[in-house]
User: Which sequence fits this backbone?
């Protein structure tokens, strides 16, 4: 995945490498920021039609996930292919694609 390579280069160029556990914590924090955006946009659920998240926050979460993949030595594209195949199998079996 070109995006994963771009993130890895950025991390290397700016000496931002860190252990995977901290990458996971960063990912959780970025997902939390997305949730906070959604809460604020919907006035904490009172206006569900106003749901919105900031585009740059989505980018931050994607960066954090791709950096985690790189730190773990996981090819993000292959991991996505595996997940899509898993969901496809579940749907073919008449199940819900979620993990239940």
Assistant:
């Amino acid at each position: 995945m070109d995006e994963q390579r771009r993130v890895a280069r950025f991390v290397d160029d700016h000496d931002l490498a860190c252990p995977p556990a901290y990458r996971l914590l960063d990912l959780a924090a970025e997902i939390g920021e997305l949730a906070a955006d959604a809460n604020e946009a919907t006035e904490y659920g009172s206006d569900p039609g106003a749901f919105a998240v900031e585009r740059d926050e989505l980018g931050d979460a994607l960066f954090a996930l791709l950096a985690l993949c790189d730190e773990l030595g996981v090819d993000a594209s292959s991991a996505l292919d595996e997940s899509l195949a898993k969901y496809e199998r579940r749907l073919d079996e008449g199940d819900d694609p979620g993990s239940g």
Q: What stands out?
A: Residues 74 and 96 are 26 Å apart (CA to CA).
